[in-house]
Description:
The protein is of the alpha+beta class. The chain is built from four helices and eleven strands, in the order H-E-E-H-E-E-E-E-E-E-H-E-E-E-H. The protein is globular. The N and C termini lie far apart (46 Å). The structure holds 2-acetamido-2-deoxy-beta-D-glucopyranose (NAG) and copper (II) ion (CU). Its EC number is 1.14.99.56.
Amino acid sequence: MHLSLTTIIAAATFIGEVAAHGYVPLLRINGKDISGWDITKDPYATPQPLRVVRGTKLDSGFISDVTSTDITCSIGNQKLPPGPIQATVAAGGTVQVLWNTWPLGHYGPVLNYMAKCPTSDCSTFKGDTGTPWFKIQQDAFVNGVWASDTLAKSNFTYNVHIPSKIAPGSYLLRHENLALHGASNLNGAQFYPVCIQLTVTGGGSLNPSGLGFPGAYKATDPGIHFNVYQSDAVNAAYVPPGGSVYPGLN
Length: 250
Ligand SMILES: *[C@@H]1O[C@H](CO)[C@@H](O)[C@H](O)[C@H]1NC(C)=O
Ligand SMILES: [Cu+2]
């Protein structure tokens, strides 16, 4: 019985691949809507609109090669956004990320990182060399539900809490869905990172860093090469890649 159920789930997941995965056309900060990157419209507009969410290639596909610079901010990371624009959020505040959709059954964690931009203008910062990143928040398998499914059932919305003690300034926020439905195969994990250009106000004096994208993830990490079709106990012991949340942020 268990095997056949697993097969059915795997088949259903596979069919789900035909549908779009999702992208982030909208952010909400303190109840105020801010345009994200709408892949159905923004790439075709002339002039190309300024957006705080980094543009991606003209699809919502995933990244599977963790050594690619696409892992930094999504497919086409080499292409910087058309110009300087950042959303302002207070340290300790919340950035609501509203995906247009997300398929149920793309089981996995939701991971969130930040990197301080070297200048006040984040649009010139690719973030794909060195180790400027630090992890701020992650959710994996909570009360028997993968964070990705919780996101899908929450109006496709995820709330990112901006640390209260980081220094004010310009940051990239790297928000990521990691889909593990095919991850029992090596290189079967699907990464969907999205980068958001922020101006953080207030805050403290912490200037964390230490992680590189690429660099922080390896294909063989136990949180990347992982079979989600196991018991809840095994899933509950799942350890996401990229290490722990940076200590002392709040
Ligand atoms: C649900 O998502 C839609 C589209 O992103 C948004 O316009 C709407 O305000 C959201 N609803 C709530 C209650 O947040
Ligand atoms: Cu998919």
